[in-house]
Amino acid sequence: MDFLPHTPEDVAEMLAASGFEDIDALFASIPAEVKLGRALDVPPALSEPELAAHMAELAARSAHGSDLVCFAGGGAYDHHVPAAVGALAGRAEFATSYTPYQPELSQGVLQAVFEFQSLVCEIYGMDVANASLYDGANALVEGVNLAVRATKRERVLVSAGVHPHYRDVLKTYTSGLGLDIHELGHDDTGALDPGTVDPTGAAAVVVAYPNFFGRLEDVRTLADRAHEAGALLVCVTDPTAMGILRSPGEMGADVAVGEGQSLGNLLSYGGPYVGLFATKLELVRQVPGRIAGETVDADGRRAFVLTLQAREQHIRRAKATSNVCTNQTLMAIAAAVHLSWLGPQGLARLGEVCARRTAAAARRLAEIPGCKIRFEGPHFKEIVLQTPLDAATLTRALSARGFLVGPPLGTWYPDLENCLLVAVTEKRTSAEIDALAEAIEKELAQQ
Amino acid sequence: MDFLPHTPEDVAEMLAASGFEDIDALFASIPAEVKLGRALDVPPALSEPELAAHMAELAARSAHGSDLVCFAGGGAYDHHVPAAVGALAGRAEFATSYTPYQPELSQGVLQAVFEFQSLVCEIYGMDVANASLYDGANALVEGVNLAVRATKRERVLVSAGVHPHYRDVLKTYTSGLGLDIHELGHDDTGALDPGTVDPTGAAAVVVAYPNFFGRLEDVRTLADRAHEAGALLVCVTDPTAMGILRSPGEMGADVAVGEGQSLGNLLSYGGPYVGLFATKLELVRQVPGRIAGETVDADGRRAFVLTLQAREQHIRRAKATSNVCTNQTLMAIAAAVHLSWLGPQGLARLGEVCARRTAAAARRLAEIPGCKIRFEGPHFKEIVLQTPLDAATLTRALSARGFLVGPPLGTWYPDLENCLLVAVTEKRTSAEIDALAEAIEKELAQQ
Amino acid sequence: MSRTLEPSAGTRAAPDDAFPLIFERSRVHRRAWSLPEPEGDAPKLDELIPEGHRRSEPLALPEVSELDLVRHYTRLSQRNWAIDVGAYPLGSCSMKYNPKIAEFAAGLPGFASLHPFAGDELVQGALELLGTLERALCEATGMARLTFQPAAGAQGELTGLLMMRAFHESRDDRRAKVIIPDSAHGTNPASVSLAGYRAQEVPSDERGLVDLEALKQALDHETAGLMLTNPNTLGLFERDIKAIAAAVHEVGGLLYYDGANFNSIVGVVRPGDMGFDIVHMNLHKTFATPHGGGGPGSGPLAVSERLERFLPTPVLAAPAQDGDRWRWDYDRPDSIGRIHSFHGNFGINVRAYTYLRSLGPEGLRQIAERAVLNANYLKSLIESTFPTAYPGDCMHEFVSTAKGLKRHGVRAMDVAKRLIDLGYHPPTVYFPLVVEEALMVEPTETESKETIDGLAAALNQIAAEATSEPELVKGAPVTTPVRRPDEARAARELKLRWSPG
Amino acid sequence: MSRTLEPSAGTRAAPDDAFPLIFERSRVHRRAWSLPEPEGDAPKLDELIPEGHRRSEPLALPEVSELDLVRHYTRLSQRNWAIDVGAYPLGSCSMKYNPKIAEFAAGLPGFASLHPFAGDELVQGALELLGTLERALCEATGMARLTFQPAAGAQGELTGLLMMRAFHESRDDRRAKVIIPDSAHGTNPASVSLAGYRAQEVPSDERGLVDLEALKQALDHETAGLMLTNPNTLGLFERDIKAIAAAVHEVGGLLYYDGANFNSIVGVVRPGDMGFDIVHMNLHKTFATPHGGGGPGSGPLAVSERLERFLPTPVLAAPAQDGDRWRWDYDRPDSIGRIHSFHGNFGINVRAYTYLRSLGPEGLRQIAERAVLNANYLKSLIESTFPTAYPGDCMHEFVSTAKGLKRHGVRAMDVAKRLIDLGYHPPTVYFPLVVEEALMVEPTETESKETIDGLAAALNQIAAEATSEPELVKGAPVTTPVRRPDEARAARELKLRWSPG
Ligand SMILES: Cc1ncc(COP(=O)(O)O)c(C=O)c1O
Ligand SMILES: Cc1ncc(COP(=O)(O)O)c(C=O)c1O
């Protein structure tokens, strides 16, 4: 099925009207030598019923929520997406619209983005947020680049408690800019010891809150030290924790970034997700990407537009604050709808349920002979489970028993060879936690 | 979750403003003696995440399309529902709207219904259609009642080739009216022999086209005989056959009714479906249910309204043409979108694919030792398979092998003890047909 | 002045450009359809279907691209009011919020893709759902068993009346009439006739309640039963219900409860405890299922023990003991028979079940409490301008009269049309017939105080405008794609379908 | 005159009533949320989270009912243009129909609910899909391998430029600059800078094509490569591409193909065959995935064999033999590293795959044919009123100039706004910068002849109005919820978030 409206008569009339012999004549400006001259070797077309069956068959060969109980974490979480979020963010008028270049025809998207920015600022305790970035890693990179521009420095200190993938992306993204990036190892509590951090000459200190191990860093002290040295503090923050934890803004962070998947977006094998980016008003002209702003129209009515575009690639070109153009607006709208569905009480409840069920899971899993929770102290949504078995082997074995856990941490943290992440969202019940524990016990017994 | 917007403050203010002591005072007009005075004994409330999990768990305990290959028929068919149909008929503005009593705020539904009526008339070859009835059985009943009113007769002849459930419903529905309903048995070709039909004194002759066995009745001859005797011909017609078969209108039927599930509606365990009802202009004032009509508005613009309401219960009350009020409008809209997606070529292709794959299935299944296709001659979408085994037993056995067939016919047709229906839609591939045949062969071999 | 429900750009409803029909967008050879080839070596169509059966007339169906189709119905939908767009205070319709979670549930393949002839062993989840819902609805109504076959309230009514007939006939007692109040909904008398009974109306008294004396007059051994909705169509609770029940039972009649107004009493009082023998519910009202522009609904019918054996076939049979299965029981010798092609509007019942499980016992009672609170609050805000037809507190709805505006030449319909321009869907007008210039208002429990305040302010403004600038009111609406369609002409010059050429 | 994109009744955009923010609908203690209780005997929050970490500032998030939420975003959506509403001829954006079947596919739990850390053995269906899509995209571009990590075109650009750098550095060859045409899209120079290169612009010649001589001037051993989109931003095919490629390769540079305009040549000519070494595609353009009001997209990056080893980690490894599994290969010593948190915008790639399988080889070529046909047909209809900036046939889009209207004081932006009142979304205006009063028009292949005729008629009408009644054009639009918002003020008096109080 090709979705083309042209009838044979249309094609003939249109060719004639625009003065072309035939279809091939349309491509006369293409030198014959480069033309393909054959059909592409791609799979044949399927009719819609055949295609629907084919896609269902492919999908059936992947294991998802209803096959496996999801205790997997590491930056992507099995949260409940309220039915209203899908129904509203999925409205065709949002999904099939383009970037709001004509404000008169785009007040729907523009206002939704303005609301998204306001919500992100509110939970992160910031003044300005943008209309979204690609994902958490990308938001972190843009945060660092902002700090580099703002401080005119090139040294960047990144906590090892930041998602290893985000740190990889940071290295890759900035490899052409020759930044000098230092890693700050965690102590045996799984957190960063502020005393060991020397931000002298640094553009930014980057931490995660909670960090990759679910632990709570001492952001305030780190921010103070960073500021003393003239560096900015960039805080990767889980938005679902913001109902119960202090905001990065309150703790002194200059830039708050994060992954918004947990807010109304599906797991979808890692994307499309949404990068959250917020900062202080002083830094607004350094902000990457689109920003919606409020103004008035010719009749004095409130109206929304894309603003401060002089920062962006289509105006500033080589000197733009970022190269981002297409972003993740639809995911941002879903996040806005989800946050509005939650409200202050709902976000607090969400945080509380995650924190308390995580604690319950930690307690239960620690009872398993040979297992322990690697790091002491407060956790949010995620814990590091140390097991007598190789973590990758155990992870595979557990999926055979109907549980998805992990990722195993050995690849990134040699000191955490036999450790893996276990994430607990509001969807995981105590019955499921017990079942997981029993599955692990069985598995260990078998070895 | 209760979906109530009232804050405690709201409740207090509203009670005060309307002069009530407390909530209980609102129910002062209810005598204490009849009040319940306790909480209802119903299951406790679930939060949305818990509810979503609970519903998924219930759903997982039912076997559907992706578990079983569906060759089942008998008035409900596994046709492909184009993705566009669900996306459009599912639009909240259609789904959450009420009956279009205020035309100014209901042009969307009213025009969609007008288009539905036009499409139904077109495929059935009729002048007038209504806005839908509950289902195929209900449409048949209303067709008979129309004939009874129009002819002032009470004798009704119904072919045994009409869906047994429809015939049951007809008996139940009219049991209070004391109609005298005669059944017309099928001959050994599975069709009605017009020669055996004596419509003298009858209000209606009722046949199905194609009939319950997938066979094509001689509607034209039956119509002629009915008309000679002053009776009306009511034809239960499968809309998906109308791309390749003559319309009931063309063959002389006075009333065409049918089940519209095959047009863009899901199987959904038997409902919500949609009853199609169409007839000739002369009979318009006898038509049951709502009808949308075209008119002009105060500015001369084309507009649509509910019309000829004097036929209906809310005006005519005890003398109404029917008691129907709420109908199946949303399913009618889905049917309209599906028919518009198909167009003339698509409907013809749909009919051709069903007919030819059914023929292919008939040929293949007839090769199974001990099996035969019970009735000779042309079929559409459905065949009667005769097997050496008890049909109900075989049906159960096949579902264990991953195929849904049936229904078995013995319960309704003593002469078809070992017979069951096999339905073939455009979704069934020749590979699936072979697999079904092999499953039957295996099953028979085992006995 | 701006337009309400304006179609999108490109379809501006200026007097000159009407919104095209899908047929008018058709172009020969354009297509949206995509279907497989008839496979392999299957015989050709003309070998399969004899010429006499082959379609000869060409079909004038629209030929459009999928994009044409999508834009047509997307824009068409934008020309319609809906609960998801704004308040819908239609009396007797309980237009409350339809939870999205219920749509999610009904869409699960394990419900949406079940074939009605699938064996019981294959659909245990679905049957358990229905079984639990049946128990809950019986508990809420005080009945013993129910059938899910009725697709809507009216079909429930007929089913109940046929069971009433079966009950009497089982005792060789043939009765001729069923009594209904003059304020009854049209489906009541229509169903009575369809069941082969004569409908006899009894008047309401000055309280707006059934005139007990008149009722007693009407009752006799010809009386099969009484149909009543309580609270009644005026939104008033029939406080004499016990006496009414006694009187009807006295003559051997049965009491039928029309559950369209059940929303106002769920968890507070049960039809069974009032003395009713037969009850239908409109799940598309009380249980918040989407109304789909006129349907689908679901009208399950519940009955007391003595009527159980007459229920339509099949009825659901719960597992006798653990390990057993849910199953359909077809062995029902006294059943009135089947009333639906299959098992009723299952998909709607799934939504109702989801709503039930979302609310729980407290939630169920609260919908009644808040529905009644909202109605009385709104009533108090507009009483001075639109007095209610009958004194006293109302339940979930009330009937006001606009007759006071008549002297300015403003009718109830004008009030309704003007209300549209002020951003609200009008209440039900001219029903019930027993009230002059009736405005029947049911805000439902899911509307907020702000919405009700706004609605009241708009109504009071209109009352003022009726005096100051009646033309403004009579000229309304001006903000809609079409204005006051000519209904008389529609009925006179019948245009009931598009026709080619 | 009626309004375009009118919000529904109750939100009439009269000058006085602005559409509220969700925050402005908030009422203390109102709630939509529904979440489980923290279960069982788990320790209380204050035992778990030290005071120093506990939130102290109250959160000013909206408190609304689910119905408030639903109405707010439903009505908000109706205030927006979309492909499903009407034509969207934005140049360089390929706003074509987004098939609904692709939405169905992406929503299947087997795709939508996969966790990115699920083991390869658990996601074989997903990996096979990606593998098949990779092969097809490589075939269509004439490249060897690709990565799906880039979430959009710009991220693909950066990835490609970093690979360009890795390529040169692997040969101990440090280069400083990347050449781009002056008509290049802004992301090109921005990505060049981000990759640590200097962007050097070369002018277009009078044909609107790369000035070959100027290019040769610019090329030297400092040149890492050239970024080009072909057809270029003016919709013209760079016919000297072979010579251009030779010249660039001559100095040891690489050719980067910006695939944003790939729609016009799929199946006709392949970037690889033109001499390009690196190609990004915008699947959200060429492969019809919904643009979501600004995103998400997907910008897979494909490269020729010699660059393969630099691809981001991991890359997909096909089953070596039957029975083997698809897997992610992390053993890539020369890789530039990771560019996305996980595997890119998988959900978008599922949609692109669905589109691919729906079209097949013939379909793919036809989208190019019809896109070019539609553009040239539209061009021929408006050429006399809006001449194109450069002579000759165009590909999928063309750039006209409105400078002829300047003498009536009518600017390109006025034409755009007036077009809105006539029911069409305007083309891209004032881009590319090299054309004065530019109108950049891309109808795409899914628009019908009728739509294009209507668009052309509207544009020609506006040209006439510019002479006869310029004020009408300069005063447009008048049919939208808001009119000509003050962008200067927005940038001057920053209001970038709602704030409490
Ligand atoms: C009081 C009353 N009774 C019966 C009915 C009929 O119910 P249904 O429309 O579902 O057939 C209605 C519905 O409008 C009603 O309001
Ligand atoms: C020519 C050209 N190049 C690059 C891009 C950037 O692609 P994206 O917006 O997906 O980052 C675009 C998108 O507008 C474009 O038109």
Describe the structure.
- The complex is a heterotetramer, with 2 copies of chain A (447 residues) and 2 copies of chain C (501 residues).
- By secondary structure, chain A is an alpha/beta fold.
- Chain A contains 12 helices and 14 strands.
- Chain A has helices at residues 8-17, 48-60, 83-89, 92-95, 107-124, 136-151, 164-174, 219-228, 313-316, 329-366, 391-400, 430-446; strands spanning 69-70, 128-129, 155-159, 180-184, 202-209, 232-237, 255-259, 275-279, 292-296, 302-306, 372-373, 382-386, 403-404, 419-423.
- The termini of chain A are far apart.
- Chain C is an alpha/beta fold.
- Helices cover 35% and strands 10% of the residues of chain C.
- Chain C has helices at 45-48, 66-78, 100-106, 109-112, 124-141, 153-170, 187-194, 212-218, 241-250, 271-274, 283-286, 346-382, 412-421, 449-468, 470-474, 487-492, and strands spanning 145-147, 177-181, 198-202, 223-228, 254-259, 278-281, 301-303, 315-317, 327-329, 398-401, 428-429, 438-441.
- In chain C, the strands form 3 sheets. A 7-stranded mixed beta sheet of chain C has the order 1-7-6-5-4-2-3, with helices on both faces.
- In chain C, strand 11 and strand 12 form a beta hairpin.
- The chains are: A alpha/beta (447), C alpha/beta (501).
- Chains in contact: A-B, A-C, A-D, B-C, B-D, C-D.
- At the A-D interface, helix 1, helix 2, helix 3, helix 4 and helix 5 of A face helix 2, helix 3, helix 4, helix 5 and helix 6 of D.
- Bound molecules: pyridoxal-5'-phosphate (PLP) (2 copies).
- One pyridoxal-5'-phosphate binds next to helix 6 of chain C.
